[in-house]
Please model this.
Amino acid sequence: MIDAIVYLSSVTQLPVSLTCEDGKPAIGAPQAGNSAGERLHYVRMTSEQLNEWRPHVTVLAEAPYTGTGTADHIYQQIQNDAEKLALYESVYDTSPRIVDDGEGGTMEFTPPFKFGMLAESALRVPRDITARQARLVLVKHGLFEQVDDAIASIDDDEQRQIAGIEWEYATRIEREAPWVNALYENLGLTKEGVDHLFIEASEL
Model:
């Protein structure tokens, strides 16, 4: 599954297959909108479903659903991209404003950056993945070309040799193998980051 935040303009024309009986977009909450009729939706879909929407919406951020923390990753993508952030905030205003404090006075209120998210739960980290899945997920994250250097940087001679042999010849990659942890440390990844890669790779 893919988590994504998509933007729908006020003039978006959707095919019948992507609309409800009343003609509204067949896409659910959470959502945010503005007075101009523009909308943001936080969605969780298969990659095939998301690809059906792509020609008709602007995908501001997306990532494979890997359980707890996925929404944080999605929103961080928007915060790191000035153009996407501007479009996001044109629909969902995050600027501070003065509001009634309910006691006859006023107070400054700043809306949370996240307009919404879907429920998340910790996913089981697979015990192992295939060598193909491991390579694909590393390519996807721009890490594949760094693997040889990461193996060469393992300090322990025996672990370095084991890592080289396993990487070249193993058909499955075990999550808890000592050489795997040494390799990923040299790729600059945390334990949680490696777990997410294994979860994501298991879907490839």
